[in-house]
Amino acid sequence: MTCDAAGVIAAMRSVAQVVDAHRDELVTLDREIGDGDHGENLKRGFTAVLSRLDTAGDTPGAVLKTVASTLISTVGGAAGPLYGTAFIRAAAKLGAAETLTPESVVDALQAALEGVVARGKAELGDKTMVDALTPAVAAARETSGSIADVLAAAADAADKGAQDTVPLVARKGRASYLGERSAGHMDPGARSTALLLRAFADAAS
What we know:
Layout: H1 5-21, H2 23-33, H3 38-52, H4 60-74, H5 79-94, H6 102-120, H7 130-141, H8 147-163, H9 188-204
Helix pairs in contact: 1-3, 1-4, 1-9, 2-3, 2-9, 3-4, 4-5, 5-6, 6-7, 6-8, 7-8, 7-9, 8-9
């Protein structure tokens, strides 16, 4: 992945492919502890993102801002506002910089996490996407090397974080209505977060 707007656009195309490929998995996960629409909602959102990438902007931040506004306007449920907030906060952190650095990627991930926490009022252990994103940011910050190295570390940590949601009892979102019955299932938001970070990492490698 190049470190400019074109590279971010290419990464977003990869994300859209990954979301499409895992749509059924995310639907199944969400059907077990939610309303079953997470996979379809994300597919619709990132399909819309694809249609807007050619005019998304000429800086990484501008591209992420376009992604954010598209997701907010097209994705239903909680995912649209949460992912939209994540991308808009990351875009704001990057500002008008024309290229990414490992440090700016970490800062953007941190801003995304802070946005999700502020919007969803969730914390680590609540069985949400925060459980994947929090360790991802921590791992990224502890990693030195290239952008690919930083994102790979984030993706690895997010994968583990998503797996670690399986035994948890949900304390936020629709899954929290199930109480103890929510244990034993992976949180779909944590899984989709891990998938997105893996797509970014693969695009950067």
